[in-house]
Design a protein that fits this description.
- By secondary structure, the chain is an alpha/beta fold.
- The protein is built from 8 helices and 9 strands.
- The chain is globular and about 50 Å long.
- 32% of the residues are buried.
- GO terms for molecular function: ATP binding.
- Keywords: ATP-binding, Nucleotide-binding, Transport.
- This is ABC transporter ATP-binding protein.
Length: 250
């Protein structure tokens, strides 16, 4: 029997200040030649602060917080994209995440070639990707451009293809950062249907959104983040009330 779960114990995550500084030779020379001293020293950013929680199979968890509160960082930490600085992180189960859709595209390669590349990034085998290639092509519905280099695509076409690839298979744990806008009305209808299907198949869902109606319709539990801290964990309706209270919203 599977024991899929998410368990965090006093998790802290810092962004290094180095990531915020210019590191090119040109910028370095500019600073050396400048007679003006920096008015503010850049410090490491404490993005997540002492986060402890358990999420078990069957739970549908919504995330709320102002921009910069830590929601996206939290999701990327769960996905293993951001390493924690201290504490303990245990995520058991196959994780599928829908954010950073442009990740893994090779601009000079065709759409078909990128289907294979992105599939490998998702941990899927070349044989499997070849078997489902036509299904992905049909869902993306970008016509002859599927055989053109990605660099010739519009932003919308890239998102459509990336969405089609990333959602072709589900996982035990589904991480979503907002509902993805990916083209015209017909495609959006298909996209929403596929997301709902993935949600139904997943054992655990973690969804970050500012859409209260979506959170109330899908989630039963809510988390409120505020300046990197988890300030509320409870029923989703009370979560929305707490979010409004913390952010002084009517």
């Amino acid at each position: 029997m599977k024991n899929n779960h998410i368990r965090l114990e006093k998790v802290n995550l810092f962004y290094s200040s180095v990531a915020f500084k210019e590191r090119s030779l040109k910028s370095l020379a500019g600073r050396l030649l400048s007679s003006r001293k920096a008015k503010h020293e850049v410090h490491d950013v404490h993005a997540l602060k002492d986060i402890s929680l358990d999420i078990r199979p069957g739970e549908r968890v919504g995330l709320l917080g102002h921009n910069g509160a830590g929601k996206s960082t939290f999701l990327k930490m769960l996905a293993g994209l951001y390493p924690i600085t201290s504490g303990a992180r245990s995520v058991v189960g196959t994780v599928r995440s829908l954010f950073d859709l442009s990740l893994g595209f090779e601009p000079d390669a065709s759409g078909r070639e990128n289907i294979l590349y992105r599939g490998l990034l998702l941990g899927l085998s070349p044989n499997f990707m070849r078997e489902i290639e036509e299904e992905i092509v049909a869902f993306a519905d970008i016509g002859e451009f599927i055989d053109y280099p990605i660099k010739t695509y519009s932003a919308g076409m890239q998102v459509r293809l990336a969405f089609a690839i990333s959602t072709i298979v589900g996982g035990d744990i589904l991480l979503l950062d907002e509902v993805i806008g990916a083209g015209d009305a017909n495609f959006m209808t298909k996209a929403k249907q596929r997301i709902l299907s993935l949600i139904e198949q997943s054992e655990i869902l973690v969804l970050a959104s500012h859409d209260f109606q979506t959170l109330e319709s899908i989630c039963d539990r809510g988390l409120v983040f505020h300046h990197g801290q988890l300030v509320f964990d409870g029923q989703v309706d009370k979560c929305i009330q707490e979010y409004k209270k913390v952010n002084n919203l009517s």
